[in-house]
């Protein structure tokens, strides 16, 4: 592993407040396809508009439900990787570390990270159109008309408790994440293409308020120039080396 720049190490040693935004890239080494990787990305075989929108669910609830059922199984078979564990370890010795994720796979929580801010919801939770969140699959009401289970409370169709395109992010969670970025001494952007606002704006907000910006990504992103330090490589390799 190449040596890290001295300035980076210095900043990390002195940092009281660290904000971290993660995206699909941190879960790639756990076997979960990212969204935009040409070969394996979810979107390579289908477009967001066709699946991750309320309109898509309205148009074809079973197609959308089945796609998320497929992804839920992928997530259930996946395990956190060394990158997730490194961030959980970092939380133990940084006084104020705020972990913000765009991912819906619970892998940060399963690696032991506390108080994860999930901007886009969680694939293990479902809800109905009246926002009745239903955790236990055993409580889902079977439906053979549409082929999508219904809410035990109001019989409306269930859907993933996930933020789709065109839907508003959970306000309290987003505001908490934004406040942490504004106060951060150091901000990490890990495994995200930075293409989806408003989550993607958070590292930029941190940097605009004086944070030292670090990008961890296998590739260049269109936000790369915003960061003081770009660590090119897999997060599962870089993060454990950084959080020794
Ligand atoms: C909102 C949940 C406002 C779903 C996701 C037109 C209509 C409506 C809205 C819009 C519109 N135009 C623009 C918008 C805004 C819209 C948007 O961004 N659209 C896109 C298409 C441009 N945003 C929204 O709609 C958001 N809401 O704006 O609301 C509003 C206000 C009032 C009233 C109504 C609305 C909501 C967006 C949330 C969408 N949901 N996910 C699901 O999971 O199925 S977004 C989805 O993409 C993911 O969740 C993820 O969060 C997001 C970004 O993807 P990444 O995580 O970055 O993954 P990606 O594959 O892109 O990149 C992976 C990176 O990792 C790459 O850079 C790769 O190089 C790197 N990598 C790979 N392997 C590794 C690695 N790095 C390190 N190590 C490795 N091993």
Overall radius of gyration: 19 Å
Order of secondary-structure elements: HEHHHHHHEHEEEEHEHEEH
Structure ligands: ligand BV8
Query: Which outline best applies?
Result: elongated
Number of strands: 9
Helix and strand composition category: alpha/beta
Give the strand line-up of the largest sheet: 3-2-1-7-8-9
Distance between the termini: 12 Å
Relative strand content: 15-25%
* Uncertain residue ranges: none
Structure description:
There is one protein chain. The protein has helices at about 5-15, 25-30, 40-45, 50, 55-60, 60-75, 80-95, 105-110, 170-185, 200-210, 235-240, and strands at about 15-20, 95-100, 115-120, 120-130, 135, 160, 185-190, 210-215, 230. With about 240 residues, it is an alpha/beta fold. α8 links the parallel β2 (about 95-100) and β3 (about 115-120). α7 (about 80-95) runs parallel beside α11 and α9 packs parallel to α10. The chain is elongated and about 60 Å long. The chain starts with 5 loop residues before the first helix and ends with a helix. The chain binds ligand BV8. Ligand BV8 binds near residues 25, 104, 120 and 167. Ligand BV8 binds near residues 163 and 165.
